[in-house]
What does this fold into?
Amino acid sequence: MCLPTRWLVFFGASGCLGLSLLVVVGPGLAADKEEKVTPEQKAAREQALASVQQIADMLGDDKKADDIQKKAKALADSMMKADFGVQAVEPIMAPLKLRSKGGMGIGAKAGVYDPDGIEAKIIGLAKKKLTAGELKNQADDIAKLAKITAAVAEVSALHKPEKKVADKKPEDWAKWSKDMRDTALELANQAKAAKPDADAIKKTATKLNGTCTDCHDKFRPK
It folds into this structure.
């Protein structure tokens, strides 16, 4: 099933896939804004949180490739059927938001990280190299948040726009979805290495953040 044209219009007005659905505060990823959430939106986000976590847990296991695709398609189709208008795709991206705004946050406990949100942490990783102590303490959480990001991209990739609108091309959507997924998985693998490299993690986080910048250049209104 292809993505309806109205979804492409939404992305053109709001940013681009995945990390750029939120309000832009810099050249790459995005931060949250105050919002009102309806009961239906809350339920959709909760469903997305659970499904994205399940997909993230399976990523990296080649034997579960089919299960990943089935779960990702089921989530994307469910959000389509919920029909939230131009906000239809938003719940899929909600895991990346601040924990206080309905996102998954970083780590098992709230308040350990500030800001406590996946996209915000990726921005931070891209801006500043972790110290040896920070890397030792944060490596597991970085690996987990990176796999969550890859899982979000996995779902987004299934529903690229059905046709070109102005200079917004379906193939660009597909490319940035793949780049987002692959780079996030690269970040996860680096964080899980026996001896994580802070320089490599900063470089990969910068690349992941840059994927969103490229998307903005194409999909955000000039």
The chain has one domain: 5-9+18-219. The longest strand covers residues 23-24. Strands lie at 23-24, 30-31. Helices lie at 5-14, 39-58, 65-82, 90-93, 118-127, 132-157, 170-192, 198-219.
